[in-house]
Write a structure and sequence with these properties.
GO biological process, one term: proteolysis
CATH topology: Adenoviral Proteinase, Chain
Strand content: 5-15%
Strand order of the largest sheet: 3-4-5-6-7
Largest sheet: 5 strands, mixed
Shape: globular
Keywords: Coiled coil, Hydrolase, Protease
Protein name: Ubiquitin-like protease family profile domain-containing protein
CATH class: Alpha Beta
GO molecular function: cysteine-type peptidase activity
Number of domains: 1
Number of helices: 11
CATH superfamily: Adenoviral Proteinase, Chain A
Organism: Pisum sativum
Radius of gyration: 21 Å
Length: about 300
């Protein structure tokens, strides 16, 4: 019986691999317009997620207490350290989130862009690289400027931790516009405006263009009704932007100022947890593969 179950499991896994390969081939052949029309809503994705799988519980059952994971959304080799404290904040569902959680979320959305063929439209600014309370302004400005110049995109999403509050800005360089999201309806502070405007000005100068100061547009959007959910509001806004491929008219789309329902927040938590577990498994498999390769090389050396 056990042998039959193993054979059946192997057949299912092989079938899934073939299906994924067929989907990738279809994506590469279809025009970009089809991807925009086929964007799944949050409700569709929720239905697609296996209801029997509670990824948050799986995280709580992990034996390891710390993880170092590679970040795909950065071209330079960059990893994020996630420990048990970070994980407990997310699994509790009622605590403020760390920058590590948002960093991995950027990588999740980066992969989402690739799967939807949106990767030429959206770029991501890592929250650990734009910490205004720990990094010099010129360092942050240089990082953003180089990102805009080195990885040309239509829009760049920057989850920003500012005075223990998560906010989101979206830079659209060619339009010379910065959209500002805050779930407490706070305007950007002067030091933040100086950094972002300086980065955008430097980007234009590198391209031989002289422009006026960027146009700032404050987006009301959903407003939080507690003191800890700001990180989830940023994550949800980022997800909705990518999911619906929003690259303009943010102020016309994000008009609902009500608080998010618990189900919406829980959906984001489950998505993050699912991706985290996937990333851990990927990295463990890669480490095993690297170890086997090293052992083969050593074996050849001694033969």
């Amino acid at each position: 019986m056990q042998k039959e179950m193993q054979e059946e499991r192997a057949q299912i896994q092989q079938g899934m691999k073939l299906l994924q390969q067929m989907q990738l081939e279809l994506r590469s052949e279809r025009p970009k317009e089809m991807f925009i029309k086929e964007v799944m809503t949050t409700e569709d994705l929720t239905k697609k997620m296996d209801a029997s799988e509670d990824y948050l519980k799986k995280i709580n059952n992990l034996k390891e207490n710390s993880f170092s994971l590679d970040l795909d959304h950065e071209t330079s080799e960059l990893s994020v350290f996630i420990d048990r404290v970070d994980l407990n904040e997310l699994t509790s569902g009622i605590k403020w989130l760390s920058t590590s959680i948002l960093s991995l979320w950027c990588t999740y959305l980066h992969r989402m862009c690739i799967s939807k063929n949106f990767n030429k439209l959206f770029g991501f600014l890592d929250p650990n690289r734009i910490l205004v309370h720990t990094k010099p302004a010129e360092v942050i400005q240089t990082y953003i400027q180089n990102k805009l110049d080195g990885e040309p995109k239509k829009c760049y999403l920057g989850p920003l931790l500012n005075s223990n509050h998560w906010q989101l800005f979206v830079i659209c360089p060619e339009d010379n516009i910065i959209f500002w999201f805050c779930s407490l309806n706070r305007s950007p502070k002067k030091n933040i405006k100086v950094i972002l405007e300086g980065a955008l000005e430097g980007y234009h100068l590198l391209r031989g263009i002289k422009k006026k100061k960027p146009n700032w547009k404050n987006i009301m959007g959903h407003q939080q009704d507690n003191g800890w959910a700001c990180g989830y509001y940023v994550m949800k806004n980022m997800f909705d932007i990518i999911d619906a491929c929003i690259v303009e008219r943010f102020n016309e789309i994000f008009t609902d100022t009500s608080s998010y329902e618990k189900e919406s927040i829980d959906h984001i938590r489950q998505l993050w947890a699912q991706f985290f577990l996937q990333k851990v498994e990927e990295q463990e498999n890669q480490e095993k593969k690297d170890l086997m390769t090293k052992q083969k090389r050593l074996k050849k050396t001694y033969i």
